Each structure stands twice: as structure tokens, then as C-alpha cells.
Amino acid sequence: MPGSDSARKLTPREFKRMRILRAAIEVFARDGYFSARMTDVAKAADVADGTLYLYFDGKEHLLLSVFDDVLERFIDQLRQEMRRLDDPVDKLKVMVRLHLESLGRDRALAHVLQIETRHSRKFMRLLSRGKLGEYLSLLNDIVKEGQDLGSFRGDVNAGLATNVIFGAVDELVNRWLLSDEPGDLTQYQGPLLKMIFQGIVPCEFHEGAAG
Amino acid sequence: MPGSDSARKLTPREFKRMRILRAAIEVFARDGYFSARMTDVAKAADVADGTLYLYFDGKEHLLLSVFDDVLERFIDQLRQEMRRLDDPVDKLKVMVRLHLESLGRDRALAHVLQIETRHSRKFMRLLSRGKLGEYLSLLNDIVKEGQDLGSFRGDVNAGLATNVIFGAVDELVNRWLLSDEPGDLTQYQGPLLKMIFQGIVPCEFHEGAAG
Amino acid sequence: MPGSDSARKLTPREFKRMRILRAAIEVFARDGYFSARMTDVAKAADVADGTLYLYFDGKEHLLLSVFDDVLERFIDQLRQEMRRLDDPVDKLKVMVRLHLESLGRDRALAHVLQIETRHSRKFMRLLSRGKLGEYLSLLNDIVKEGQDLGSFRGDVNAGLATNVIFGAVDELVNRWLLSDEPGDLTQYQGPLLKMIFQGIVPCEFHEGAAG
Amino acid sequence: MPGSDSARKLTPREFKRMRILRAAIEVFARDGYFSARMTDVAKAADVADGTLYLYFDGKEHLLLSVFDDVLERFIDQLRQEMRRLDDPVDKLKVMVRLHLESLGRDRALAHVLQIETRHSRKFMRLLSRGKLGEYLSLLNDIVKEGQDLGSFRGDVNAGLATNVIFGAVDELVNRWLLSDEPGDLTQYQGPLLKMIFQGIVPCEFHEGAAG
DNA sequence: GATGAATGAGCGTTCATTCAT
DNA sequence: CATGAATGAACGCTCATTCAT
């Protein structure tokens, strides 16, 4: 797909920016955001300390940029995949799959996104109002669409359902990150979706189990 | 029930320990763990800086103690409530209710437990191996019990189901924490349980939706 | 004179404060304010780096404190000497003498007061509005008193005369500071006063020389 | 007088040099020498950062060049004016007038010459040994000439008298610089000269006042 | 000559922790 | 036990200067 946005050649500036972002991911994942030193990021990116500040406003901005950059690309990819699909059920499946695949493929990145970017309420708000909000909004749209079509139960608030779904996926990734023998993250996709779709109680008992 | 753990009078030492823990919760919630200064915790607890170190090993241990102390009491309470119940469905309901009630009652505490204690992988591991693990284990027991009795579907790995349930509740608390107009956290109990029990897809479509 | 303010024993805190101020004078004079490093001041005062900040708000405040502390004592001394005198001419003589003596006695201090504290307009304003203003005001009072009594010519604005006198003394100190073989600063007292009192033009030519 | 130094057309290089010097004056006056950044000087001069170093050896040399350039022209002008005059009294009058006029006309320049160039002993020595020394030497010559002719009192060391005169003028300029409502600097010329010529004590009291 | 992206040395300040009283 | 003054290691960031183009 020559000429496509994601394939076009990077300018030297963009290239160096990417190098720094990648270095930040590695160093932040290895040492933790707070313990990580800017000078180590610079070393990992093979640039001088001062160069970091030609591309980013500071340490915090660097962390935020890791998050936003990655999520931006992820959301783009998601949007493209969504276009091909009609069934909200399928959309949800794809979304969960991509989520697990993306993070499962890059443990350092997952670490930064799941843990280091959540070190403070202030930072979490920043994320929620940025790309993360966009992502949740995408998920929310799918839920609502499913409810409109009758594929998803309509007696649960869509926003809450969105949170529950995200929370389930998110926690799974967290456990995978904390595990000593992680294995393949995507292996959980099937059971996870089953839980999300069908819950934990078999249909025949639904009456009695209703909250 | 004289002499019971929770009702007996606190020794002066225990009392001061509690004062420091409470001060830590307030200060960590207000300023964030990393920005918070030990001297401010001391001030809030109305003790000298050095006194903190007579009760805790350091800043990190103080944070850990907040977590463990609170969870210990929560788990005790949970165990007592569980004893009265037989039905795993009821147990799960109670567990979720207590979870939401406990955190909904004390926003500063919720903030510290949900956000500040998760600032690094190292710390999260510490939690997982401590009281948090115990809590998850309790939840896991309920799930397995439900599966054994047939109340919960047996075709999903219990550990994964546990994670999904915990993740759903946890994320809900997070959203509540980040919200500007929080409202009452317990209001979500019903819908949340519905999601956990029945999933998002109505029974009649379960075949097609299976992951 | 036991019990007098200046002779009373210093508290340990005051003593350490003085030690730091003295160290600052030496280091600022030796390296210049901007090149001087706080860690060197600390070393010279034989305290830890952080201790400086228990006594002063920062580097700039330290410099300001050197100035204000010294001038405060100088002004006190001046006020006491003034009390014994009636003749403004005598007062001016004493003032100039004390000025030259105080600085001539301590070259490092003179260096800091004359040069390092004047590194920026902002800082000079700070000084002018502080103790330096008080000092100039004292000088101004003497000039006005002399004019009222007829000892000083009344056809020159007192403020301007004050500036001229101060400028003359100040510049003399500056030249002494920049000189490689300084000699005794007080040796200039007589000629300086002659210039201030009588100007450069002999009386018989005053008509023609008037500006 | 075509071809004269001050009137001939500037080469492009000289022109750019002047632009940089002017930019330096503005930026140094606005931000202070130490806070000022070379990149801001470059911006103000509308050249690239690196270009500054094609015309000056560095930041310090730039400041020194501002001083020397301005003083060189000032001294040239002074020498020309002196040529027309015989009376040392007149020469002194003209010198003071030109001094006040030159600085009164350009407050940014005055700021740099009076304050920013005096930030350290090392720099002040540099000035004293350069153009400033030349200027003081010029003043000294006038004083000595006046003493030889009997117009100025001979019982005061010429060097000291020079310092006193310079100090008086210099301090006046300083006060004007620090004032919030400066007004016209040249208004002080008359009274200032009166002080310099006649001192502060009326002739009839000279005996008693002699230092 | 002119550019401006890259360099990297340098430092004021903070704050968790200690320990003499 | 309690205190709080003192410690000193640690680091993000700036900016004068350089040099490949």
C-alpha cells in the first residue's frame, strides 16, 4: 500500500522523534517513570540530553506523548477495521482482539500504558480527556449501536457497560503484566468475550441472579 | 462481644498509628503519593517527622500499610458476612456491595487504594502478593464454588472470571474517582451485577456471540 | 557593656546563620555571585547543602541577607554616633569615616556590597527600597539639617546633593576595590571630604564657574 | 567632510555588526545580561544564532563590545568638542553635559552601561583597562589642566578628584535609571556642576569644614 | 558567509531519612 | 518514646557554543 499515511517515509525529525519515544518506552518500562532519568532516555535514544527538550516539553510531556502517539495509531487502525463490519458483536470482538494483540505484542509498551501513565489522578484525568476518552467513546458507540439493534441488552446503561467491558479487558492485561510467566495475551480473548457477552450465570438462572 | 478485635480499646500506640495512617490517606489523596512530603503527613498527624519512622519503615511502607490495613479489615468483614450465606450468587452480591460501599464512603481512601498504590509495577506486585491477593483469592473461591454448584457457568476458567469481575468493579470505582460530579457509588451496584451475571448479550443470541 | 544588643551571646541558630553569611561573603567575593555555587558556600560554612535552605530561601535571598544584615548593623552604629553630634558638618565627617572604615576593614565584604549586589536592575531596586534606602535617607537628613542651619548651601536640591555625596564615596570605594595595590581606604577621607565640602573650584572663581 | 569616519557608508558586515550590537543592548536591558539568552539577541537582530559568533567571540565579548563601541564613539565626540575649548571649567561642563545627554537619550543603553557591565569584578577591571580607563584619563587631564592653570584647587590629588567627579555623575545616572518616573536626565546638569565646582559648604565656612 | 539543530556540562533545590538531645 | 534540625544524594532542565550543510 505505497503512499499510505502509515507507510510514507518519515522525515529525519519524525524519525528521531520516534527513536526518542521508543527509548522512553524502554526506559520507563525498565525503571519506572519516576525512577527513570531523562539522561538514560537520551542515552537509549542515542541523543544528547538537551535534544530531548527539542522534541518534548519535559519528562511528563514525554510520557504523555508515548501514550497519545500509541493510542492515536491504535484508534486509527480500529476505525479502519470497524468500517468493514456491521454487526456490533463482531465489532466488539475485533476491538478486544486488537486491544489484546497490540499490548500482547509489546510488553514494555503495555507496561507503560497500563501502569506508568496512571501514577496520579492528575495524569489519569489528562489521559481520560485525551486519546483514552476517544477510545472509550468508540467502545461506547459500539455498545449503543448494539443496544439499538437489539444485539445487546438494552436494560443496562451504555456508559456503565462500556466501563465494565473496558475494566474487564484492562484488568486482564494488568494480570498478564504482573505475571511471572506471562504467556500469550491473546489466548484469553475467547473466554474474555464469553464473559463479556454472556456473563457468569447460565441463562436458566438469570431470573434469580438479577442484581 | 468484649475483647473482640474490632471493638477493644486501642492502646496509645495503636491509636497514634491509626492517626498517622489516616493522615497519610488524606495527604496522599490530596497531593499524590510522589508529591506528598513526609513532613506534611507528620503535620497532619500532629506528630514530629521522626515519629513517623517509629511506626513505619519509610514512605513506601507507609503507603503499603495504608493498603494492607484497610484491606485486612475489609477482608475480615467480608469473611464474617460470607459465613451467613450459602448461595455463591448472594456471596458475590454482598462482596460487590461491600466493595462499593467501603470505597464510596471514603473518597480519599478510594483515591489512595485505586491510584496511588499502583504507581509502579514493583508496588503492584507487592500488593498482589499481599492482601490484594487474599481478596482476589476470596473472590476466586466464590467463583469456583458457584461453578461447582452449577450456579456459575463452568466453561470459563475461574481465575479469568475472577479477573474480569474484579476489573469491572475496579474500573467502575476508577471512573467514579475521576468524575467531577461523583454521586453515590453504590447506585451502580445493580447494573454492575447484571453485567457480571448476565453479560451484555441477551440469552437468545448467545450461540452466535460466543467468542 | 554587658547585656547590650550587639554583645549578647548568640543563640546556636544565630551563630550558624552568621557562619553561613560569612561563608557567603567569602565565596561570593572569591568567585562572583553567579559563578559561586551553593555547595561551595555550604562547604565554607561547614554545613550540608540543605542546611543553607533552613536559614535562607535560596541563593538570591542569601545575597540579599548579606547586604541587609551588614547595612542594618552599620546603620545602627551610625545612628548611635549621630546622637552625640550636633553639627551636620561633623555628622557628615563621621558618616564618611565610618563608611570608609567599615568597608576598608573587610575587602571581601566590600566586594560583595559594591559589585555582586548590583548585578541587575531588579536587585538594585530591591536594595534601594531596603536598607540602602534607609542609609541614603539618613544622609539626606544630614544634608537637609545642614541646609536649614546654613552650614550647607541651600541652593542645591538636597536629594541631588545626597546622591552626589554618596556617588563620590561609592566610586572611591570602587576604585579601591579594583586597584591591584589597594592601600588603606581611610587615607582618602580627608581629600574626599574637602571635595564634598568645597568642590573643585576655589572660592574666588565661584561666580564664573557656576553651572 | 566626506569620507570621515562617522559619516562614511557602512559595509554590509559593519551594518550587521551594528544591528547585533543594538539588539544586544535592547535584550540585555530588557532581561538583564545573565537572564538574556543569545538566541533572543539573535532573534532581535534577525540573524541565526550561529551568526552571532561570526561577529563576536561569545556572550561576554558581545557585552564588552557594546561598551567599548559606545564609549569609543563617545570619546571621539568628546575629543572633538574639547578641541574648541580652552578653559578647563568649560571642558568639564561640556563633558558632564555630553555624559548626561548621551545616556539620557537612550535608556536601554544607559541601563547596560551602568548596570549590566558591572556584574563582576573581573568585568569591571576589563572595562577600567579599556575604554572606560581612557574616558577617566580624559577627565583626569582636564582636572590636572585646571589645577595647573589655577582654575581648580591644587590641594587635592587629581586622581581622587577625577573619581569623585565621575562618581557623582555616575550615581546620578544610576538614580535616574532606578527611578520609576525618570524625567529628563539633563535637568540635573546645573546643580550637579554646582556641587562639583563649589561643594556643599558655602565659602565663608570653608575653614571649619576642611576635612 | 549564514544557518539552526544538536550538544552536554553544569547547578539550585528538594526531601526522605537519621540521630543527638 | 518523641523530637526536629541537619543531612547530602539525586536530577530535570537550560543555554552558550559548535559545526555539518
Describe it.
The structure is a homotetramer of 211-residue chains. By secondary structure, chain A is an all-alpha fold. The first copy, chain A, has a domain at 58-202: Orthogonal Bundle (Tetracycline Repressor, domain 2), CATH 1.10.357.10. Chain A contains 11 helices and no strands. The model of chain A has no long low-confidence stretch (mean pLDDT 92). Chains A and B meet through helix 7, helix 9, helix 10 and helix 11 of A and helix 7, helix 9, helix 10 and helix 11 of B. The structure holds a DNA duplex (21 and 21 nucleotides).
Question: What would the keywords be for this entry?
Answer:
Tetracycline Repressor, domain 2, mainly alpha, 211 residues, DNA-binding, homotetramer
Number of helices of chain A: 11
Find the structural class of chain A using helix and strand composition. mainly alpha
Oligomer classification: homotetramer
What is the arithmetic mean of pLDDT of chain A? 92
**Which strand-content bin applies to the residues of chain A?**
under 5%
Biggest interface? A-B, 64 and 64 residues
Fourth-tier CATH superfamily name of the domain at 58-202 in chain A? Tetracycline Repressor, domain 2
Which helices and strands, and how do they pair?
The structure is a homotetramer of 211-residue chains.
Chain A: H1 12-31, H2 38-45, H3 49-55, H4 59-83, H5 88-105, H6 107-114, H7 121-129, H8 131-149, H9 158-178, H10 189-198, H11 206-209
Chain A binds a DNA duplex (21 and 21 nucleotides) through residues 13, 37-39, 42, 47-54, 58-59.
